[in-house]
Amino acid sequence: MSLRSKEVRLKLVLVVALFAVGVRGASAQITASPSSIKFGMVAVNVPGTSVLVTIKNQYSYSVNLTGITFSLPEYNVYTGLPIQTIPAHSSVSEFGFIFLASQPGVYNGTINFNFVAQGQKQTVTVTATATAFTTTAVATLSTSSMNFGNLGLGRTSTAQTVTVTNTGGPDSIKISAVDAYYEPFAVTGPATPVTLAAGQSATYQVTFSPLIVGPTTATLTFCYNNLPCNAVDLTGTGLMQNKLAITNFPTFPYATQGFAYQANMAAVGGKPPYIFRITQGSMPAGLAMATNGAITGTVNSGDAVGNYAFTVQVQDSTMPKRQTMTANLNIVVDVPPGGQCNGTSVDVGGSSNPIVDLMQLGTGTYCPSGSNCSTCPFGENCQGGLYPDGSNTDPDPHHSDGVAIAQAIQPINGKYVMISLGESASQQPFEQLITEAAADPEVNNPNLVLVDGAEGGATANYWALKSSVYWTELLNYSLPFAGVTPDQVVAAWVSDVNSSTSASFPSDATTLQGNYESIAQNLLTFFPNIKMMFFSSINYTGYSNTTTLPEPQGFESAFGAKWAIEDQIDGNPALNYNSANGPVLAPWMGWSFYYWGNGLIPRPDGITWSCQDLNTDGLHPANPWGHIKISQYLLDWFKNSDLTTPWFVKSGDN
Predict the structure, then answer these.
(1) Which domains does the chain have, with CATH numbers?
(2) pLDDT tens-digit profile of 536-547?
(3) Residues 313, 326: contact at Cβ < 8 Å?
(4) Which end of the chain has less neighbouring CB within 10 Å, N or C?
C-alpha cells in the first residue's frame, strides 16, 4: 500500500514566502513569506507536515505559473494547480506542499516556481529543510480482527476489547486518532491524544448493534504521531427476530444547538402498530417524541453541548396483553458547524414527499414539478435504481464481464494503481481511504497503490476536457510522487459534479452524463491499461450555505452516473470496453458505494447525514468524521465486491 497521498499529511500549516524580481527592474511584485521553510522532524514513512504557500500578484497584469519543480522527490504539491494564470492587481493563489521520506536523514531542497510575466521567464526559489527519523517505538494491537457473530436486530453485543501497547522503546508514541465512525459498531476508550511510554497500553471497547439483516464489516483504525497507522477488522451479522425489540442504533445522529432535528424510532417483532414513550431521562430541550416514534423539534440554543441519555419503551398491539421492551438511547448535541443546519431533509419539488435515494426509488420515478421527465434517457421517465429497469443489480453480461476483468488484473512492473477523480468533496474522503486501506490488515496489498487525483475545483466539466490542467497535475505530479506511471493505472474511482448548473432536471443530469462519458474516454487515452471505472454519489448537500450544488441537485447528480453506465450496458460503441465487440474506447463502468441519503431521514441501511457530518459550508464532508464516514463506506465496498477483491485485498484474501 502506498502512503504517498496529499491531504492526510495536513498536520501543520505554514506560510511560505516567495520573492520575485519584477519585470523591467521593478520591486518585487509577486510576494509571500517566508522565503525559507523548515518542515521539522518527520518520522520515516509517516505523513508529515503540509506547507501552505500564498502567492500575491501585485502587477497590473496577469502572470502565468508554468510549473513547479522540486530538487528532491520527497517534496510535492498537495493542493493548488501548478499551471495556472494569476490575474492582476493583488490576486492571491494558494498552494499546499508536503514532505514524505522513506529513509532517515536531512533533506535540504528547493521548490521552484516558474513564472512567465509579459513574456519574461522568472523562477522563484524557496528553500526547504526537513529531517526524517526512525523511532524505536512499536505500536502493537492485541488483535487484528473482531467477529461478533450472529446477533438479532435490536440487540447490542457484549463488548470486545483491543489493546494498543508500545512494545518497543525507549521512545514513546502518541495515539493521535482512533477512527471508527461506522455504525453499527461503537467504540469507547481513552480520548485522544494518548501518550504511551515503552510498555504502556491503552484499551478500547467495541460493541455491535446490527441495523440490517446480513453481514456488516468495518475497520477500526489507530493512527500515531511517529508510526504508520494500524487497524482491526470488525464484522458481525444481523438476524431478523420475532421478539419485540427497538432497532435504533444506541446513539442517534448528532443534533445542533439552535437548529431543527428529526429522527424516528424503529422496532421489529411483536404486532404493529407500535407505541413509543420515554420512561427515563430526557432528550435535548425543544425536541419531543410522538407516540408513533417520530422525534421532531428545534434544539434549544442554550442546551449544553454533550450527551443526552434517555430510555424509550415500545409497546406493541398484541391482545389481550401487549408486549413491551425498552432501550437506552442517546442524542449528542454539538455547536453549529456553520452550515444551514435546518435543512434536515429535502422534498420532491412541488410536493411534500421526501426524496428517497436511487436504490429505494427502484422502479419508481423521480419527476419534480416543472421538469420535462419525458426527456430522460432510455425512455424510463427518470426511473430509480442504480442500474437499468429500476434494479440495483448490474445485469449480465455486463457484471460478469466486470468480474472477469477484475480477475485478470495483474501487477504491471510490480504495481497496479487506482486513482481518484473529482473535486474537493471527493479528494478529502479518498485521502482518508488511503490511510484506512494502508492500515487495514485485510488490504495491506504490496502491489496496490492508491493515488488521489481529485482536486479542489476539479468538476466534471473540466475532467471531460483532455486539455484540462487537472490531468496535467495528475500525470506530472501526483503519479510520479507516488512512484508509479500512467501505464500502471488499472482503475479509477470517480465522484464528481458540476458546480455551475441551470438547476434544471433532467438537463443538468444529462450534461453530467456526457461529461462522465468523456471522462471515461479520456481515462483510456491517458492510461492505456486502465480496465475499470467506479462511480460514487456525492454526499447530502441540503445543509449547504453556498450556491454550489444545493439539494436536490446533489441527489439529481447521481442520475448522470446511472445513465452513463446504462449507456455502456446498452452497447454505445463510444463506451465499448470489450475488444470482441470492436475498438475499446473506455474502461468497464459501474457503481461502487452510493452514499447519498436524505439528511436525517435514515435509509434502510441506517445511513443518515447530520449537519455535524459536513464542514462549515454545509457541503464538504467534515474533518475528520465526514471523511472517515465516507472512507469507511468505500473501504468496506472495495474489500467485499467481486469486482475488486481479486486485486484490492492482499494476496491470499481474495
Answers:
(1) 7-133 (2.60.40.10), 139-239 (2.60.40.10), 245-334 (2.60.40.60), 358-648 (3.40.50.1110)
(2) 999 999 999 988
(3) yes
(4) C
